[in-house]
Amino acid sequence: MIIAVVFAVFGVCFIWRAAADLLRKRAFARRAARGPGVVAGWEAESETSSAPSPPDHAGLRGAPRTTTTFTYFPVLEFRTADGREIRTRTDVGGWFPRREGREVAVLYDPEDPERARIDDFRGRGYFDELFFAVGGAAFTVIGLSALGWL
After folding, report:
1. Which segments cross the bilayer (predicted)?
2. Do 137 and 146 meet the contact criterion of CB atoms below 8 Å apart?
3. Maximum CA pair distance of the chain?
4. Per-residue pLDDT reduced to its tens digit, 78-87
5. Dihedral of the alpha carbons of 74, 77, 79, 80, in degrees to the nearest 10
6. CA–CA gap between residue 113 and residue 21 (Å, rounded)
7. Quick one: DSSP state of residue 61?
8. 125 — alpha (psi -120 to 50), left (phi > 0) or beta?
9. How many CB atoms lie within 10 A of CB 116?
């Protein structure tokens, strides 16, 4: 029963986080200026993790396995409404880099144009919210079903 409650609570927390992030990102989009831009390149950030190797046929473990994952952040170039040339890295990255030279619609904060995003589903960062909302719903349904409430 405790595990079911934990599942339901985690599910609701995931949904809450998705909703809060979505509202924050939509508020940015409402106050942002829009304009054309280009993907001038990308910056990669790496994260390395290690895990123990599985035992071999004799039961001995080898050296730990390391895995490196990369997140690619687009670098945008665009001109603001008042004519300033801006080159900035977005704060929304992904596993697959954007094609360099691609023309994109840009959302940027008029007071701080360095805060910019690509104006599409992926560029606005909605994949995170989708992941947390779907995962939260699954956890909630599993927890409530185990409690007999569904």
Report:
1. 130-149
2. no
3. 70
4. 999 999 999 9
5. 30
6. 21
7. -
8. left
9. 28
Question: Taking a C-beta distance cutoff of 8 angstroms, is the pair 55, 61 a contact?
Answer: yes
Three-class SS state of 98: coil
Tokens standing for residue 101: 């030279």
117 Cβ contact partners less than 8 Å away, ≥ 6 residues apart: 28, 32, 90, 91, 92, 106, 107, 108, 123, 124, 125
Q: How many residues does the chain have?
A: 150
Q: Token digits for 86?
A: 């801006």
Q: How many helices (H) and strands (E) does the chain have?
A: 2, 5
Over its length of 150 residues, how does the chain's per-residue pLDDT go in tens digits? 889 999 999 999 999 999 999 999 999 999 999 999 999 999 999 888 887 777 766 666 667 778 888 999 999 999 999 999 999 999 888 888 888 999 999 999 999 999 999 999 888 888 888 999 999 999 999 999 998 887
Q: What phi, psi does 29 have (nearest 5°)?
A: -65, -35
